[in-house]
Amino acid sequence: MNLKSHLIFTLYTIYGILLKVMASKGKARGSSGQYPLVQNMTVTEGGTANMTCRVEYNDNTSLQWSNPAQQTLFFGDKKALRDNRIELVHASWSELTISISDVTLIDEGMYTCSLFTMPVRTAKAYMTVLGVPEKPEIDGLTKPALEGDHITLTCMTQGSKPAADLRWFRNEKEVKGAKEVNASGKTFTVRSSLQLRVDRNDDGVAYTCKVDHVALTQTPQQATEVLEVHYAPRVHILHSLAVPQEGQYLKLECVSKGNPSPDPVMWTKDGGELPDLDRMIVEGRELTFTSLNKTDNGTYRCEAGNHLGSSNAEYVLFVYDIPTTPPPSTAPPLHPIPPDPTALDPTVTGNRDPNALGQHGTDHALIGGVVAVVVFVTLCLIIVLGRYLARHKGTYLTNEAKGADDAPDADTAIINAEGNHAHAEEKKEYFI
């Protein structure tokens, strides 16, 4: 406080005491119920604080505001401290309100409102100043990063009071980071680290660090970095026909994804160059067959690469005959059955012979013919055997049977049988 301000403050103090003495002599006692009323407040750094001191009963006694350094700001409606940020809002016998604009952290502290009674009564209000955190900064990002690299992103903000909170987001999804808080005078410096093992899925991903703080009543402070990741390409082939047939138009597209972009691509057939460049047209990543024929059968390879590596994909082409079209039917089928493309698709069946279906039809006809011949021969044998058995069925007479009843032994029976046929009809042997 300079000399002039000190003199003014002293004069106002003496003036207040004199007024109190005069009032105590001329009025009845009633000052015992006079107490100033104040409230604590919180203000954001750079904002404006309105400080109000009220008294319910007053007998023309003056009110005074003083700062934490006990410097008088206002004595009644009289300004005591030369500070352009401090202004009088309202002054009366029951209220003294002042404002402090562009509040800084230095303004934080205990403010006193004094009512100059005998004795002087005071009330204290604490002003809390919130330190606004600075816009965060992200460090540790290398551009471009290589697939498989380990990197650490660090986000830092300064000047917060109390300490701010930092949050990480991968695109719009929150991820967890490691937080560190350091005090710096009345404010805090906050850091948060995020460890990553980058891959191709991180290419083009935005990592955002947001600051959450009570002083940020609207949009939070934030910083964003977009990752660029270089990686080797991966290749696959798309084809325009499921079942390629002679005379058709076929397009093969070599789809390759890598960073940097693997352009151009290389097409080969069966390990060598393309044989017929008049019908096989290469434009960028596409290989086009203007009119397919059987000579196009083979394995086509697409290869692409960049400085990180190369990749290839293969397509096995089988060109099928044009199917014979049956005569048109007058009535549409009730339940048409769509053809199964997987039955003829060379990409699904692997290295299947394109003529495999025709061979199976020939095999079935041959087997049917053999079975018919076997059945016919078997029937013939059965008929022949039946006729043979029917032809040899009957009654047979043996020489041993002749005179056997009168002969004492076998020799005599044989002798008698040579000339005796009297009992020929009685001794019979049947063969069936």
Summarize the entry for a quick read.
With 432 residues, the protein is α+β, with helices and mostly antiparallel strands.
- Amount of helix: 10-25%
Radius of gyration: 57 Å
What's the main sheet like?
6 strands, mixed
Low-confidence stretches: 19-32, 329-339, 341-361, 419-432
* Order of strands across the main sheet: 2-10-9-4-5-6
Q: What number is the mean pLDDT? A: 80
Distance between the termini: 155 Å
Number of helical segments with 4 or more residues: 5
Shape: elongated
Strand content: 35-45%
Structural class of the helices, strands and pairings? Answer: alpha+beta
Structure summary, number of beta strands: 28
Keyword list:
disordered C terminus, 18% helix, 432 residues, five-stranded mixed β-sheet, alpha+beta, six-stranded mixed β-sheet
Describe the structure in your own words.
This protein has helices at 3-26, 341-344, 346-349, 356-391, 410-419, and strands at residues 36-37, 41-44, 49-55, 63-66, 72-75, 78-79, 86-91, 95-100, 109-115, 121-130, 137-139, 145-146, 150-160, 165-170, 173-175, 178-184, 187-197, 206-212, 221-226, 229-239, 250-259, 266-269, 280-283, 286-289, 298-306, 309-317, 394-396, 429-431. A hairpin with a 5-residue loop joins strand 9 and strand 10. The relative contact order is 0.07. The protein is built from five helices and 28 strands. The termini are far apart. Mean pLDDT is 80; it is low at 19-32, 329-339, 341-361 and 419-432. The protein is α+β, with helices and mostly antiparallel strands and 432 residues long. Strands 2-10-9-4-5-6 form a six-stranded mixed β-sheet, with no helix packed on it. Strands 12-20-21-24-23 form a five-stranded mixed β-sheet, with no helix packed on it.
